[in-house]
Amino acid sequence: MESADETGIHVVDDIGDPEIREVDAQQRRIQAFSVGLEGAGDRKTIGTVIYKSIYTVILSKKFNLLIPFGPLAIFVQKKTNQNGWVFILGLLGIMPLAERLGYTTEQLAFYSGPTIGGLLNATFGNATELIISIYALRTGRIRVVQLSLLGSLLSNLLFVLGIAFFSGGIVRKEQVFNKATAVVDSGLLLMAVMGLLFPASLHSTGTEVHLGVSELALSRVSSCVLLLAYVASIIFQLKNIKHLEGNQHGEILYSGDQDQDQDQDEEGEAPPEISKWESVIWLGITAAAISILSEYLVDAIEGTSLAWGVPVAFISVILLPIGGNTAAVTTSVMFAMKDKLDVSLGVAIGSSTQISMFIIPFCVVVGWIFGRPVDLNFQLFETATLFMTVLFVAFMMQWLQAILYMKTLPPDTSLLLSKQQELKQWYYSRILKPRNTGRQK
């Protein structure tokens, strides 16, 4: 249908056209399918949408073949009560669930914008460790909570970060990372470790006013401060994300050629693979599955320790963090080999920052609510180990920046520095050293 106005322009009015109405209805149905809804009740189409969603989230990854080990662990616990097998099967089953939890969080972040997406990633980034810790806390296994979180920190800072550097160095001779983000994360890590160091020092030196009470009060106050600092750091990073990304001018990690696969790095961000409501549903399903499986996993720790003849500390520090860090290892290696070292650093150092500044203080506050005496006293040896690890990572990042600074100096400045070093050596060997020798005589 056409109508002409006073200017002679023909206005097309196809509202009454049945073909246009059919196309519009089909577009509305497709839009409804994208959120998993169908007003007309077409079962075949709903089944297709469900199958596509299951295939994308579960069946498309070979790593998800380990998911059946989770129900198998529950079956073994019900029928045989073999704690060793329950722990191994539960650990294998929780690995792909932790990876899928991170995947659904990333998919949901696509629809939430940069601010809400950043908050989602910050909240659910270590949800597996948080779920396991909360259940262990409810059952009174305070030492398991402390050791498992300590193991996650050491695994992220040493193993995940180290294997990312190693795998990236095999593929490329030169890697680039964002200096500003690394400095912020390193500073936050040092601040969190200082919060853990004070209660341990208070307990070890025997200077408490009331034994077991003063360190608990100090831990609760420190936890509240760390939580506020973590929220402030999240707000800072979200508000300055463009500045931090734009400040990346090539912090060189290894020297060599950097012309390989530049086209792959310049590709745009991939679109989301599932819809918003599918992401919400799968996020709830994976979180519920992890919470159910974590109960059997934590309950089997003591029995596994007795059956294998190994201490609970070894299982909590070494084996238990594997369930939550397997996805971090694969992600760090994958992005490091693609010359996206910022992502690898964000996975390793950012995850450690979240554990030390959010999950550990949050467990202290939750224990306070539950009436559990959870404190930040990780014993002297564990605290010293963590402190040395964080210092090593912080100094390593600063050392890499110093190497970059020396390499980017102008030629005349580098020559001036080298001549200055030669002058110092000459002054020491010709003037200062003979003068000191004469005084000794």
TrEMBL record:
The protein depicted here goes by the name: Vacuolar cation/proton exchanger
Molecular-function GO term, any one = calcium:proton antiporter activity
**Taxonomic lineage from the root:** Eukaryota, Viridiplantae, Streptophyta, Embryophyta, Tracheophyta
Q: Where in the cell?
A: Vacuole membrane
Sum up the protein's function in the record's words: Vacuolar cation/proton exchanger (CAX). Translocates Ca(2+) and other metal ions into vacuoles using the proton gradient formed by H(+)-ATPase and H(+)-pyrophosphatase.
* Entry annotated with the keyword Ribonucleoprotein: no
Q: Which residues cross the membrane?
A: 85-103, 115-137, 149-171, 183-202, 217-236, 280-298, 310-335, 347-370, 376-397
Q: Which InterPro entries match?
A: CaH_exchang, CAX-like, NaCa_Exmemb, NCX_ion-bd_dom_sf
Domain of life per record = Eukaryota
Q: Please provide the record's keywords in A-Z order.
A: Antiport, Calcium, Calcium transport, Ion transport, Membrane, Transmembrane, Transmembrane helix, Transport, Vacuole
Segments forming domain Sodium/calcium exchanger membrane region: 85-238, 279-403
Chief location category: membrane
- Recorded topology in the membrane: Multi-pass membrane protein
Would you indicate the residue range of the signal peptide? none
The GO biological-process annotations, alphabetized, read as: intracellular calcium ion homeostasis
The answer on whether this UniProt entry bears the keyword DNA-binding reads no
Q: Which GO terms describe its cellular component?
A: plant-type vacuole membrane
The record's comment on protein family reads:
Belongs to the Ca(2+):cation antiporter (CaCA) (TC 2.A.19) family. Cation/proton exchanger (CAX) subfamily.
